[in-house]
Amino acid sequence: MARQVLRDFIDPQKLSRLAGLFLHARQPMLGNVSGRHRSPIRGSSLEFAEYRKYVPGDDTRRLDWRAYGRSDRFYIKEFEADTNLRLVIVLDTSGSMAFEYEETSKLQYARSLAGSLAYIAANQGDAVGLACAGAKYYKDIPPRRNAAHLKNILDELADVEPTGETGLVNVLHETAERVRQRAMIVILSDLFVPTDELKDCFQHLRFRKHDVVAFHLLDQNEIDFEFNRPTRFLDLEGGAPILADPAIIGVQYRRALRDYLEALKTVMRDAAIDYHRVLLQDDYGDVLARFLIGRIPRKR
């Protein structure tokens, strides 16, 4: 029963609303079993891919005789083989993820997104893995496909606590090297990292042909910065506290945040990252629904 209570970050009603949606990759995946995702390897399927010229040794049953009648040349029909997906969730466990809005922290919100995505992927037969990206708390669970493994993922999500500085940069580089085959890498973080370091991480992941998704978790108060009197600001990642007058630093803060978000947007665009800015005030079920619907493949 204790475990069941700890897993309250997953809402069964929200999962039931998402039951008709599937997690799709934006690019072909390489897997070892049949699944619902496109593979770069041509095979036998109902989805036509292309024609290519016949070469000796090809299966003559795949010859297109209509194309032969039109062109007097032999052509082979190729179809897209479907395969399974590897989903790797990278969860930022730094102290800044303890920031709360109405008793919901960034980490709690990230748990809900991560647990729901893990459940959806496992339910459709895909492999799921988890990497906790904290300088003090690091955990790596390789992707696997079974119900017991999903339980391990959910148990780890329930136990993780935000502490210390972020280890996101190192974990993303390690993930790019460690996950050999193409995978979907889902990053859940407030991305309090210099944009030039993030650029290197994302370019590394894209070079390895991973499908990268970033959920950028922010609170509306971090954007608006509407404080009316001198306030003591705490560094949740271990730095010294700062006593400041928002009336004095407000303009500079908003300008710095705007510049950071613009630079981050450029980094995401250049690296072809599927970027989603999420506020703690947003319903995470609606966030996931928009994400999953946006990834439904278009008919060619």
CATH superfamily of the largest domain: von Willebrand factor, type A domain
Mean pLDDT level: 85
Number of strands: 12
**How much of the sequence is in beta strands?**
25-35%
What's the CATH architecture of the largest domain? 3-Layer(aba) Sandwich
Structural class: alpha/beta
What is the makeup of the main sheet? 6 strands, mixed
The quaternary organization reads as single chain
Could you list the spans in which at least 5 consecutive residues all have pLDDT below 50?
Answer: 1-6, 31-37, 41-46
- Tell me the distance between the termini: 48 Å
Rg (C-alpha, Å): 23 Å
Task: Write up what this structure looks like.
The protein has ten helices and twelve strands. Helix 6 runs parallel beside helix 7. The protein is an alpha/beta fold and 300 residues long. The strands form four sheets. It has a six-stranded mixed beta sheet, with helices on both faces. The protein folds into two domains: 2-25 and 85-294, von Willebrand factor, type A domain (Rossmann fold, 3-Layer(aba) Sandwich); 37-83, no CATH class. Helix content is 38%, strand content 26%.
Quick structural summary:
The chain is 38% helix and 26% strand. The chain has 300 residues and is an alpha/beta fold. The longest helix is centred in the C-terminal third of the chain and has 25 residues.
